Amino acid sequence: MTIGGEVGLAIYIFPLVMAAISDLHSLRIPNWLTAALAAAFPPVALLFGHNVDWLSHFAAGIAVFAGAAALFAFGFMGGGDAKLLAATALWTGLGQLLTLLVFTALAGGLLALFMILLRHPVAQASFLATVRRLPSFAQKNTPIPYGIPIAVAGILMAPSLGFLV
Predict the structure, then answer these.
(1) What is the CA 79 to chain-centroid distance, rounded?
(2) Which has the closest alpha carbon to 147: 65, 47, 34?
(3) pLDDT of the residue at 3
(4) How many CB atoms lie within 10 A of CB 9?
């Protein structure tokens, strides 16, 4: 990977990591993070890209935003999660969109399973014995911080983003 590719990779990964941390701590993903992720795509692609299919990337971002906005409207997804997923899809393009969505679903399923297990009294006692503090999402009726699986999926996609190599 070239120095430019490493810079592009850092510009892509930093907002994803920050969004996951923010969602873990506050169940909120700041708009500036998703805006930074989306706004960084064109200049990074122009500076470090190799024949970027602009239509594919913008179509992926718009399609995911439309679908995620519908899920948000019906209460199935948070607004920050919808925007983060759309911004991440912008980076992957249509050709890798299905992989991004599958990775997100798998990481989300693992996180949901972990949360279910952590909400069991025996698991909570064990966790408290070692860590001495339960994470906020261990409380019943706390929503899943879905920014975490979106960020994990986005980071897993990083090696396949051809314009970053």
Answers:
(1) 13
(2) 34
(3) 66
(4) 19
pTM check: above 0.85:
yes
Q: State residue 49 phi and psi, 5-degree precision.
A: -80, 160
Q: Pick from 144, 146, 148: which is nearest to 16 by CA?
A: 148
- One-letter-per-residue 3-state SS of 85-130: HHHHHHHHCHHHHHHHHHHHHHHHHHHHHHHHHHCCHHHHHHHHHH
User: For the chain, which residues score pLDDT lower than 50?
Assistant: none
Residue type, 107: A
